[in-house]
């Protein structure tokens, strides 16, 4: 497009380059050179046809919706960083503890949506309550470098109400849905069904040592010796032998 010459001038002397007439309109202040037609046309100065995919950094996903100034502040185009961390450090909810390779888990489609699948991409599938746990609850450092143990005791030692007495094979009694629930059934899994008040007694009331190795006596006198109120003599139940005679089944069925 050719502009008209100044008054009294010849048509051949009219300026022919964009910057000759539009230098004051150049929002880039000359930083993008003088070949304005690479991006603009004469139909509308604000209309641009610049194709970012022809650069070394193709815009896709949400990046297509970002204003130019977001990545090119103060008309800075040279040496623009292309790594995620430089632009998104302020959005990093991991506060840098997961390293700088954001693309391992995130895409440009949505920053908050991660493509990382713990069940698929690791040797430890998340089931039950593990699915709702935060990443930082287990991963204190960079998960790409840090190797975490997977045994229950490694994370739940402080939650162990048995204080280690029952060993470390927690999954024999507990599942991953709820730590306080137990799959162990005393009536089914032992030779001593719990009846009456025994069903309400705390485990450690009888199991004072390692549950898997400690042999607990089943005679009444073994546990209730201190409950045998003396009546001017040694007591109503004088010995373990007498207890056996009374019968553990009768004592166990009592509700008082």
Query: How does the overall form come out from the CA principal axes?
Result: rod-shaped
Spatial order of the strands in the main sheet? 1-2
Oligomerization: single chain
Strand residue content: under 5%
Q: What is the typical, i.e. mean, pLDDT?
A: 78
CA distance, first residue to last residue: 106 Å
Please give the number of β-strands.
2
| Unreliable residue runs | 239-256
Work out the helicity level: 10-25%
Count of DSSP H/I helices: 11
Helix/sheet category = mainly alpha
> Major sheet: size, sense and barrel closure?
2 strands, antiparallel
Q: What is the N-to-C order of secondary-structure elements (H for helix, E for strand)?
A: HEEHHHHHHHHHH
Radius of gyration: 39 Å
Q: Please, could you describe this protein's structure?
A:
The protein is mainly α. Among the domains are: 11-79, no CATH class; 157-216, no CATH class; 217-256, no CATH class. It contains eleven helices and two strands. The protein has helices spanning 18-22, 68-71, 84-88, 118-121, 135-138, 152-156, 186-189, 203-206, 220-224, 240-246, 248-252, and strands at 40-41, 44-48. The protein has a two-stranded antiparallel sheet. Strand 1 and strand 2 form a beta hairpin. The longest helix has 7 residues, at 240-246. The protein is rod-shaped. Mean pLDDT is 78; it is low at 239-256.
Features:
single chain; 256 residues; mainly alpha; two-stranded antiparallel sheet; 11 helices; 3% strand; disordered C terminus
